[in-house]
Write a structure and sequence with these properties.
Largest sheet: 7 strands, antiparallel
Structural class: alpha+beta
Strand order of the largest sheet: 6-5-4-3-9-8-7
Strand content: 35-45%
Number of strands: 28
Radius of gyration: 27 Å
């Protein structure tokens, strides 16, 4: 016991020394930032910046204008101003709007511009607006009038005509099914409330249709995911082949112990490495742990639901020398989450590494509040210095390395052992490691005499059941020419992206309800009464408190059965008496076509806890069936 206590004191002392070194790195970085504060970014670094808490529509108000200077849209809100030159004179507005609404190819949507009252739900303003979509000219017309006048032309007071290209992104609210947020190219995001959810869906589909008339997206994209513990070294001018320029659609670049460059200087260095024609989607940093994502400019308009967050797991769960950063987003109808982590070092600290993994899953709040990141995204890609070691002597490891017996090394790899015991990274996949251990190297490229070589630097991924075939690893390698005491690692993937389905009111069921009956929780719990929260990004949260077996109905905002079967319903389980969290899980809605009976695992922060089973069916709600019949 005394020896273990002394060992732990030694670890804390080493952590203290490392934190002191990394704090010096942070001070260096702050000095670099102050030096760089007067420098403008290059024109290819227009970016979306998100709050660290991970708002679902966090847009940086600083958009780059055509002149290259930054323009602050918050100073010029989207007012629908009169146009006295160009298309039409103000006095002609009533006649113009009245004639236009009756033209073929023109659709009219009555909306109410929304205002936010602090953090509450959006509420309507006093004036109604009309969004007219002119399918013939790829134009959107915004008309402002008084509520209740209708689109007769008489109530229209102001008018603006904009191109489809002015719409950068649209965000459909889940909690308010008639609410749509539009990010305009030259203005701050604006929120609109439609008369009903059906009209919101139709407007959304019309704009998407205009977009696809000029932009035919590929369903097959490539991802390049790279990780390197830089050891506070200055990066070389050229980063190839670790980052091959202009070869992939998405680049996600993870580093640890990166203090030699300021954040913006590091991002600029990476922008030069990936090549021209890319936009920086977002970046996130925690001390020296950094994650930067780039995407081809032609795909930027397909990205939405951007979020980012970080989690410190160093000393006292406050120090950021260990922890993780993450960025999530949707590209079309496929959700992605990238995580970069730096876990506890040393062979003896495997338990702490596994605990850090569970803490990160719990603390990285992305997507739906209260749920961890393991079940929410179609694809979760995790890279970094995971610091897992090999349970062999140094001589034995070197012997297997000389013989290229990689499979034997992996049999003694702590990460593989932890996965087998369901202690960490459960259900994550990893490609074959057909290269030597990446830690710990000396300046001449040989392994240190003081450490056992290990596969510290890894790339793993986890896909939802419905999306498991859509992400395929194409390469997994180390780059010996790029090293500190760690060798850089990279991996490429082929991604099949789902397209957002279009809504046809004549053939599709626009609002489908899920009915779960005879639901049973298999696990001994202190209280027989449980609270289960059902949530997703396609339905409002539904909470039920009951004793097994129970029945619950979950409304969705789904357009068709074909689309529904590609989605996943999430749930979390709580003790009704104590409020204790038991676990969570995911129900693949593909099971609907496979039969009514479902049975899924419940996990608690990644560890197995129990099972949820029952009967699953679907039906269209009476309310929305009536709404569709009136359309």
């Amino acid at each position: 016991m005394k020896d273990e206590f002394l060992k732990e004191l030694d670890f804390v002392s080493q952590e203290k020394n490392q934190i002191t070194q990394e704090m010096n790195g942070v001070l260096q970085e702050n000095q670099l930032l102050r030096q760089d504060s007067g420098k403008s970014l290059s024109s290819d670094l227009s970016r979306l910046s998100l709050s660290s808490s991970g708002s679902s529509f966090g847009i940086n108000p600083l958009n780059r204008s055509a002149s290259g200077n930054f323009h602050d849209p918050s100073k010029t809100p989207l007012d629908i101003s009169r146009q006295t030159s160009g298309d039409i004179q103000v006095e002609d507005l009533p006649r113009y709007a009245s004639e236009l609404k009756d033209q073929p190819g023109v659709k009219v949507f009555e909306i109410v511009k929304a205002k936010r009252v602090r953090n509450k739900m959006p509420v309507s303003s006093l004036h109604s607006r009309f969004l007219m979509v002119d399918m013939r000219e790829d134009k959107i017309l915004l008309c402002k009038g008084h509520f209740g006048n209708g689109v007769t032309g008489e109530g229209i007071k102001e008018y603006k005509k904009v191109s489809r290209r002015e719409v950068r992104r649209m965000e459909k609210s889940i909690s308010a099914p008639s609410l749509l947020t539009i990010e305009w190219a030259q203005h701050r995001p604006a929120q609109y409330i439609f008369k009903n959810p059906l009209e919101r869906e139709q407007f959304y589909n019309d704009i998407q249709s205009l977009h696809r008339h000029v932009h035919v997206p590929s369903r097959h994209l490539s991802i390049h995911l790279a990780t390197w513990n830089m050891g506070n070294l200055h990066p070389p001018p050229a980063l190839a082949p670790w980052i091959p320029a202009d070869q992939h659609d998405i680049y996600a670049i993870s580093v640890q112990e990166c203090y030699s460059l300021g954040e913006e200087e590091w991002c600029a260095h990476l922008a030069a490495a990936v090549g021209t024609g890319y936009d920086r989607v977002s970046d996130c940093s925690l001390w020296g742990i950094r994650l930067v994502i780039f995407i081809r400019h032609s795909l930027s308009q397909d990205v939405h639901n951007l979020q980012r967050n970080s989690c410190a797991t160093g000393v006292g769960s406050v120090a950021g020398n260990k922890g993780a950063v993450a960025i999530s987003f949707k590209i079309r109808d496929t959700s992605l989450c990238f995580v970069n982590s730096h876990l506890a070092p040393h062979f003896e600290r495997n338990f702490q590494r596994n605990a850090m993994f569970n803490d990160i899953c719990k603390s990285l709040q992305l997507g739906i509040p209260g749920l961890d990141i393991l079940h929410q995204f179609d694809h979760l890609l995790w890279a970094g210095d995971l610091n897992y070691r090999i349970d062999l002597s140094r001589e034995a490891v070197l012997d297997h390395v000389d013989k290229k017996e990689w499979d034997i090394l992996l049999q003694h790899d702590q990460l593989k052992q932890s996965q087998h015991l369901d202690a960490a990274f459960q259900h994550f996949a990893e490609g074959p490691l057909l290269f030597p251990p990446t830690f710990k190297l000396l300046g001449d490229g040989s392994y240190s005499f003081k450490r056992v070589p290990a596969y510290c630097d890894r790339v793993l991924w986890k896909s939802q059941e419905n999306s498991s075939g859509d992400l395929q690893q194409k390469s997994y390698m180390c780059i010996p020419s790029l090293r500190s005491d760690h060798v850089a690692v990279c991996s490429s993937f082929a991604l099949n992206v789902r397209e957002e389905p279009f809504f046809d009111p004549n053939t599709d069921l626009p609002f489908i309800h899920l009915l779960l009956e005879n639901v049973v929780v298999t696990q001994d719990v202190a209280s027989p009464s449980l609270t289960i929260n059902f949530a997703s990004n396609f339905s409002p949260m539904v909470s039920v408190t009951a004793v097994s077996p129970f029945r619950v109905e979950v409304p969705t905002f789904i357009k068709s059965m074909a689309h529904l079967e590609k989605l996943t319903l999430l749930f979390s389980l709580w003790d009704d008496y104590s409020g204790k969290f038991h676990g969570e899980g995911a129900i693949s809605l593909r099971r609907i076509s496979q039969g009514p009976i479902f049975q899924v695992a419940i996990s608690k922060r990644g560890s197995p806890w129990g099972q949820l089973s029952g009967h699953l069916s679907v039906h269209e709600s009476t309310e929305h069936a009536l709404l569709r019949s009136q359309h």
